[in-house]
Amino acid sequence: MGKGTRSVRGSTRHVNDEAGSVIEPIYQTSLFDFREPEDRPSLHGVVPLKYSREDNPTVYAVESKMAELEHGVDALGTSSGMAAITTLMMSLLSKDSTVLMPLDVYGSTLVLMERLNRFGVRTVITDPGTNNVINSLRNSINVVFIESVSNPLLRVYDVPEIVKASHEAGATVVVDNTLATPIGLTPINHGVDFVIHSATKYLSGHNDVVAGFIVGNDDRIKGVWEWRRFLGTIMEPFTAFLLNRGLKTLHIRMRTHEENAKAVAEFLMNHPKVERVYYPCLNNHETHETAKKLLSNCGGIVSFEVRGGLKEAMAVYKHAKMIIPSVSFGGTESIITHPASTTHAHWSPEDRARAGIKDNLLRLSVGLEDPEDIINDLSQALNYA
Length: 385
Hints:
Blueprint: H1 3-8, H2 57-69, E1 74-78, H3 81-92, E2 98-102, H4 107-115, E3 122-126, H5 130-135, E4 143-147, H6 159-168, E5 172-176, H7 181-184, E6 194-198, E7 212-216, H8 221-231, H9 237-247, H10 250-269, E8 274-278, H11 288-294, E9 301-306, H12 310-319, E10 324-325, E11 335-337, H13 349-355, E12 361-365, H14 371-382
Parallel strand pairs: 2-3, 2-4, 4-5, 5-6, 10-11
Antiparallel strand pairs: 1-7, 6-7, 8-9, 9-12, 11-12
Helix pairs in contact: 2-9, 3-8, 12-14
Cofactor: pyridoxal 5'-phosphate
Organism: Vulcanisaeta souniana JCM 11219
Family: Belongs to the trans-sulfuration enzymes family.
């Protein structure tokens, strides 16, 4: 079954199909009849269905679809991408555990890991890049956490090489696959233990939900389910319904996001007021060869540096008309972000410089509008630089 068919259909139907609904219904209920527990379904094979903090049929439908898309044994829906990371880390880590990650992971992920130090968890932060991660591996590392494609400079990490080196060192590998999506890369096919998603982004695709996923490669996902139950981080049924709806067009949307992003990147490459463009499909990107090897879709994010500094970048940011100045990415609308003052504002200037995030850097989430309109808006905004 192809990725498009999996995105649209999946294989799981809701628990009670007596009404014959073609679309998965919304089970907006906090509890389920538990008169005969032995007759109740066990959705994730842990406990019978009884309470929506543990399991819900609407949530389970989209979880099963995500497990298929990412080629995992099971998937768990959570209330946000950060909830997915927190739940998984609570399951994997204990006092004296050590996590290895590169500096260019999502800013809030980095802060979360550093704050886990108060519970005895040690965090080792490397400079960005595949080789830096591999060269920092030691037998004392318990978990290696990377993003398949980093944000906002779009470095593509060599997942197979990191998995090989990490497993030889005895470490569990977690990959945040939010930017690549399962349309661009399926990390579990390369031996990754767990995949994380902020489903708020491309998976839902419409800037109208906040959600996350954890996908597991083996039975350890049942332990993660236990922690989701304890923490209460399960996805809401209506969110799951909207997310399932969004997934049905994921493969089509990603194709158009990529086409539009390539057109925008080529325009920016030739613009006199643009100093540098970051897009994995461009020959000049530092990880272009890795992108060619691993990615079947280069995504819809294009980052670029405006000639000058902060003043010039903010002039472009503020004068966008159709493109929305805001945060986040992956929706149908084009959104422009100034990472140094938003997503990475809580980083020190030294850490931003170490990660390559300059004051004149802008990140563009290229939407599904006509590419000519996106380019025309960028062109007029760049006049103010």
